[in-house]
Amino acid sequence: MPRTVLAYEAPDISALARTLHQGIAGLDRPPGHVELLNLLARGAGYRNFQHMRADAQARQRLDAPPPAPPVPVADHARCEKALRLFDPSGRLARWPKKRNQQILCLWMLWSRLPAGETFPERRMNELLNAEHLFGDHALLRRELVDLGLFRRTPDGSEYSRVERAPPPEMAKLAALLRQRQHLAAA
Fold it and tell me: What pTM value is reported for the model?
């Protein structure tokens, strides 16, 4: 078990001396290691050494900076499966069956649509039709809104992109699609 190094500070040296004197005077032999630790802890205002150690450890935990959040790592298998859904020019060829893949494809579409502007439903349909081949822009539009990637007015006449941090897989999938397009062009 690792040894915990504790700093010792007594608020009143006179009270410490009195506590040590009373603790040692009542013994017919010299105090043992644990007894001496307990006497010192009581002289510093703690119930015993265990209480002093627990307080010091809690203080260290509270003073320590919070741990850094884990860095998300892209799921390469998920990206590879999603890559199969796109044609060589990078358009979505078919709508995936699995929700996990649908979400990644929606993020890819989100990344290709203009940010910071509001446009009418007709323009939204044109933009989506340019990015897919299976002819169901209404499905894509609805899914983008349901996922919270796009906002629409209550009457559905205007759409705007909601800026959010994409999952790490989206960057990997985008890189794979660019690589595939570059190879197809060569």
Answer: 0.64
Q: Which of 69-73, 120-124, 127-131 has the lowest mean pLDDT?
A: 69-73
Q: Is residue 131 assigned to a domain?
A: yes
Q: What is the residue whose two structure tokens read 């040296």? A: 13
- 70-100 residues labelled b (16+ CB within 10 A) or e (exposed): eeeeebeebbebbeebbeeeebbeeebeeee
3-state DSSP helix/strand/coil % of the chain, to nearest 5: 55, 5, 40
Q: Furthest-apart CA pair in the chain: how many Å? A: 96
- Same domain, yes or no: 53 and 84: no
Residues 99 and 170 in one domain: yes
Is 3 contained in some domain? no
Q: Residues 15-72: pLDDT tens digits?
A: 888 888 888 887 788 888 898 899 889 888 899 999 999 998 888 888 888 888 887 8
Q: How many domains does the chain have?
A: 2
> What pLDDT shows up at residue 1?
56
What domain range is 80 assigned to? 76-185
Are residues 177 and 116 located together in one domain of the fold?
yes
Same domain? 51 vs 107: no
